[in-house]
């Protein structure tokens, strides 16, 4: 059957036990090339720091490598964690990428730290966060640099060179109404992180907010999926997975995988826990037919025209098989 929605891939470049970083990158390339051959629309690399389980602290570097070894699939970040970096430097990086690969580069930007406080402190060493401003100000600065054109008659102009013929497509990743509104106000695409927030009411309001303030543009929805040969096998693979919301007394609010991580995050941040709550796990799981039925229902209910899906599993063969099962079940809209 043909689909009324596009399917894209979000990859964290996981490392199962005994897998080297080099092999995890080869696995990522195989996922990207397989996704391209199967008709998936985008392949995005996430950003995570100081963890043995994931090999993606620098999406920009991996994007360049992957662009050189693919032909048609869009390659991007899901996303760059802007709080750690100069908006100007991010604009330069993605202008270089967009100049290397015409009209195939996506810049996804996120607000989360992508790691625990010790790695955040190391990343931000020497940066004055008060000068950087809040996330909205940082995103506005990034947008300015991406949109600015080089004027040779203004020697004092700060331009994010090179200026590509086709700029990277811009996406804000978030799971709140505020993020939806900010994306719309700046003219950016919006990706609702449903894999981090399973609140159906919030999803609906965020999608409506974005559509209302962006002259009818539709948001993308990010979802975790587990595809298996049977529903029971999918349930077995999902066992043990969880997501928690941690809020600290210092105002920091993050998603974490388990209660122990919350205690460790609090210790590293040197801030007491204000609340630590286990959330409803939002994973679309089952056979390929089950997955497509659930995605189609979401498409019909909310008008979602693209899903970017991520497997929370570490095993490469299992993740690769899930892509194949999904694609064999349907003719992808890409």
Give a nutshell description of this structure.
By secondary structure, the protein is α/β, with parallel strands linked by helices. The chain has helices spanning 21-38, 59-67, 87-100, 117-123, 129-132, 135-147, 177-186, 200-213, 231-238, 259-269, 288-302, 316-329, and strands at 6-11, 42-45, 74-77, 80-81, 105-110, 169-174, 189-193, 220-227, 244-248, 253-256, 273-278, 283-286, 306-310.
Helix content: 40-55%
Tell me the distance between the termini: 14 Å
Catalogue the unreliable spans: none
Order of helices and strands: EHEHEEHEHHHEHEHEHEEHEEHEH
Relative strand content:
15-25%
Tell me the number of helical segments per DSSP (H or I, 4 or more residues long): 12
State the secondary-structure class.
alpha/beta
> C-alpha Rg, in Å?
20 Å
Mind summarizing the main beta sheet?
Answer: 8 strands, parallel, barrel
Mean pLDDT: 92
Give the spatial strand order of the biggest sheet: 1-2-3-5-6-7-8-13
Q: How many beta-strand elements? A: 13
Quaternary structure: single chain
> What is the global morphology?
globular
Structure description:
With 334 residues, this protein is an alpha/beta fold. It is built from twelve helices and 13 strands. Strands 1-2-3-5-6-7-8-13 form an eight-stranded parallel barrel, surrounded by eight helices. The radius of gyration is 20 Å and the shape is globular. The two termini are 14 Å apart. The model has no long low-confidence stretch (mean pLDDT 92).
């Amino acid at each position: 059957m043909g689909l009324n929605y596009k399917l894209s891939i979000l990859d964290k470049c996981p490392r199962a036990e005994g897998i080297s970083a080099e092999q995890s990158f080869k696995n990522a390339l195989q996922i990207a090339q397989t996704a391209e051959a199967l008709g998936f629309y985008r392949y995005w690399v996430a950003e995570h720091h100081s963890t043995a389980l994931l090999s993606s602290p620098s999406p920009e570097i991996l994007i360049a490598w992957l662009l050189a070894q693919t032909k048609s699939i869009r390659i991007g970040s899901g996303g760059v964690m802007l709080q750690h970096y100069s908006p100007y430097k991010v604009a330069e990086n993605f202008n270089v990428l967009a100049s290397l690969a015409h009209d195939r580069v996506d810049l996804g930007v996120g607000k989360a730290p992508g790691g625990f406080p010790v790695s955040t402190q190391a990343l931000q060493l020497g940066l004055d966060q008060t000068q950087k401003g809040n996330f909205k100000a940082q995103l506005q600065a990034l947008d300015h640099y991406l949109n600015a054109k080089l004027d040779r008659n203004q020697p004092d102009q700060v331009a994010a060179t090179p200026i590509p013929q086709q700029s990277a497509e811009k996406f804000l990743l978030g799971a709140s109404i505020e993020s939806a509104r900010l994306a719309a106000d700046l003219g950016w695409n919006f990706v609702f992180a449903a894999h981090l927030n399973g609140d159906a009411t919030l999803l609906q309001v965020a999608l409506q907010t974005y559509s209302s303030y962006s002259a009818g543009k539709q948001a993308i929805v990010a979802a975790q999926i587990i595809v298996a040969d049977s529903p029971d096998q999918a349930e077995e693979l999902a066992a043990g997975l969880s997501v928690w919301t941690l809020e600290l007394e210092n105002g920091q609010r993050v998603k974490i995988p388990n209660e122990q991580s919350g205690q460790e995050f609090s210790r590293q941040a040197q801030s007491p826990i204000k609340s630590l709550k286990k959330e409803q796990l939002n994973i679309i799981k089952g056979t390929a037919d089950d997955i497509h039925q659930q995605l189609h229902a979401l498409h019909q209910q909310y008008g979602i025209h693209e899903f970017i899906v991520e497997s929370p599993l570490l095993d490469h063969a299992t993740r690769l098989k899930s892509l194949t099962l999904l694609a064999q079940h349907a003719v992808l809209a890409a």
